[in-house]
Write a structure and sequence with these properties.
By secondary structure, this protein is mostly helical. The chain contains 3 helices and no strands. The longest helix has about 35 residues. The protein is extended. About 5% of the residues are buried.
Amino acid sequence: MDYIGFLFTSAYATQPAKIKDIGVLNFNTLISSVINVILIIAGTLAVIYLIYSGIQYITSSGDATKATAARTGIINAIIGIIIILLAFSIVKWVQNSVEGGNPSNTGGSITTTPPTTGTGGGTAPGGGTLPPAPSSGGRST
């Protein structure tokens, strides 16, 4: 067996890995990415501040001024987290409306089919007719 010929045969050569096409970066994508990063950083800082204030509250050792300052920090951190979550929701809603999506319908799309006509079972919504009801109570014999 020819080992050198085996190594350089085109059938055994590997193709270079294809780089994934990320598409064109448009203004909407850039802005949404920047806002998402800012909100993630803000949320992380708010949680860190909440933990820090909680540790201050625990270690206040009965000192009323330290406990009050720590309690105020905890309340402020919780308010900040709520505001960040609301901002994130508003940004997602605006993104959906700008991109042409329906902001009130975040699920899949609703499709309708035209009514079909059956053999005399009644009138279906939309003007078609329903098939006749089975005579044996819905069971096949």
